[in-house]
Amino acid sequence: MTCAEAITNYALRSIGIGERLLPRTEFDLCTQFTLIGSGLIWNVYFGVFALLIGFFIANGLALAKASPNPLLRKPAEAFIFVFRGSPLFIQFFLAYQIFVLLPRSGIELFGITVATGWLTKAWAGALIVLILNTAAYSAEIFYGALQSVPKGDLEAADAYGLTGWHRFRRVVWPTMMRLAWPAYTNEAIFLFHATTLVFFSSFPAYAQQGDALYYGSFFADKTFNPFVAYPIVAGYFILLTLLLILLFGVVNRRLNRHLPGAARRIRYRPQLIR
Amino acid sequence: MFAYCADPKALEGLAWLSCYLTSGTHLLFYASFGTVLFLLAVTAPIALLFGFGGALASRSHFAPLRWFGKIYTSMVRGVPDVVFFMFVPIALDQLFEYLRSRVSCDTSVPVRQGNDFIVCEAAKLPRAASPEWVHDSYGMFLAVLAFSIVFGAFAANVLYGAMNAVPRAQLETAEAYGMTRRQVNRRVLIPQMWSYAVPGLSNLWMILIKATPLLFLLGVEDIVYWARELGGSKTSAFTYPHPDWRLYYFLAILVFYLLMTWASERVLSRVRRRLSLGQATMGGETLRKAGA
Fold first, then answer.
1. Most A CBs within 10 Å: which of B33, B87, B124, as the mutation test of the A interface?
2. Is the predicted pLDDT of residue A83 greater than 90, yes or no?
3. Partner-chain contact A87 B250, CB within 8 Å
């Protein structure tokens, strides 16, 4: 098989376009690169959507956790504790079991039948778990940032007569984001790395449409050679991580654009804090 | 376990449950919690040692050693740890078998034949004739090594950062006293580093706890394995028939992990407090003011 053939056959294999059967005998470099790269679509899909939706939930959770009202604070604290205190792997298994136990015919809600079958599919079920997981971790980051908003900023806002929503939107929230952003970048990287777990927990890879690591381990199993497939997966993830750092750096510069020296490229040192 | 468990089919309610929860396979399930704790107890010190070596290596003045340290510390930053957990055990296994095959096999036969990795019977690890427990402990050994290497790299990151965080003035003072590089390292840098390293290391301990279910991916019979095994629905052909109970088993595991992380958090916050006593940091300053 030539390289061009491998690309046309397998470039979109992970979303069901192209050759139906996975390679059986030919495991040349081109096939491995293409198929593992096609699996990366799933990692990006899970990562992007979980981050996007999780971001909003995390903001709400952080505010709820900082709220003086125990009716808001307690549930938020409990949610964050459960999702940060337990392994993501177990959360996947548990969520899958819950989704499987839902009645197949759907649930009657106000006379409308809500289908539940799609929840057991990886694209929805695993995404929900990832959203909740990243929401909990990010909420803790945002909460920490919210607690460290300088007192002077709030006093200045008071002096300008800003109150309520305006004060939050114009003073508290931007400062919170600014303080949280480096840690949040880190969380985003962790989240993208965590997406590799999806197809190794109960969620089935429908018609062998899996993510990068799924195909990586497929090749390693078939060729008995881990020294090719896994480094390819690693290489793709290094590129993905660099891209993430770049994108988050752009946002970081925008958040700090009023500060002297913010135009300078920020030297990013990834932390391993989660 | 109990005398009345001889005929489980005749039992009902609590008696049935007490027999069910003490059956032979359940005792293995409970023992697998021990496996997890064992992994934690063995991996943490080894990983700390690897991390210490990695951090010292990346500060070395000898270039190749420094490169090695830098590569080791940065390898976990861009690549998911799961990839390493999949890669390291099989890579190590093949490495060991390859090395043994060079000693005890006919070296003219290539090890890689097409899509196969073949070594002669004498070089196989573990030997096919070995008893079951040798196979199990070899798997566990590879798992411990994989965890140690990955978390060693994480720890090296933390310790490298902590070494850089020790105030430069302290090291210069030591040099001014005429200490050699080794003496500065041993007497000032390393003792002072810990209070900067503790927040990172305690975070790492939490990550390590939460990474232990990945043992399942390495083929070790851990709590996830047994939860899937025991929870799956059992027909009446089994001694204790029941529907799909995996949800409850996973809930139990979730509670176990929540307890582990909760207890660790409490212990670690005390350690953090103890270590920031007398340090020129914000935490130390708060403690000093509270005491005065």
1. B87
2. yes
3. no
| B262 closest CB neighbour out of A85, A196, A223 | A85
- Across the interface, whether the CB atoms of B80 and A194 are under 8 A apart is answered yes
Count of CB atoms within 10 A of residue B174's CB?
A: 19
The closest of B74, B80, B93 to B140, measured between CA atoms, is B93
B204 touches chain A (CB under 8 A): yes
What residues pair up with A108 in beta bridges, in sequence order? A113
In whole angstroms, give the CA distance from residue B138 to residue B229: 22
Residue ranges of domains in chain A: 45-255
Would you place residue A262 in the very low, low, confident or very high pLDDT band (cuts 50, 70, 90)? low
Mutate to test the interface with B, among A31, A86, A104, A192 (most CBs of B within 10 A): A86
A91 has pLDDT over 90: yes
Q: Total domain count for chain B? A: 1
pTM score? 0.89
d(CA A77, CA A185): 23
- State percent of chain A over pLDDT 70: 94
Domain extent at residue B146: 3-291
User: What are the backbone angles phi and psi of residue A239, rounded to the nearest 5°?
Assistant: -60, -45
Measured CA to CA, the distance from residue B64 to residue B37 in angstroms comes to 37
Q: Is the CB of residue B22 less than 8 Å away from at least one CB of chain A?
A: no
Question: Which residue ranges of chain B lie beneath pLDDT 70?
Answer: 1, 280-283, 292
Helix (H) or strand (E) holding A114: strand A112-114
**CB contact (8 A) between residue B224 and residue A200:** no
Contact criterion met (CB below 8 Å) for A40 and A215: no
Partner-chain contact B79 A237, CB within 8 Å = yes
Asked whether the beta carbons of residue B157 and residue A272 sit closer than 8 angstroms, the reply is yes
Alpha carbons B181 and A107: distance in angstroms, whole number: 71
Q: What is the model's pLDDT at position A202?
A: 80
Q: Looking at the partner chain, which of B81, B90, B251 has a beta carbon nearest the beta carbon of A193?
A: B81
- CATH of residue B233's domain is 1.10.3720.10
Domain spanning A45-255: which superfamily?
MetI-like (1.10.3720.10)
The H-or-E segment that residue A78 falls in is: helix A70-85
Query: What burial class does residue A91 get, using C-beta atoms within 10 Å of its C-beta: 0-12 exposed, 13-18 middle, 19+ buried?
Result: buried
Cα separation, B255 vs B233, in Å, equals 22
Top residue of A77, A83, A89 to mutate, by most chain B CBs within 10 Å, is: A89
Angle separating helix axes A70-85 and B246-275, nearest 10 degrees:
100
What does DSSP assign to residue A266?
A: P
> Cα torsion at A63, A66, A72, A76 (round to 10°)?
80
The A-side interface with B (CB below 8 A) comprises: 25, 27, 81-82, 84-91, 93-94, 97-98, 100-101, 192-194, 196-197, 200, 213, 216-217, 220, 222-227, 230, 233-234, 237-238, 241-242, 270, 272-274
Mean pLDDT of A88-93: 94
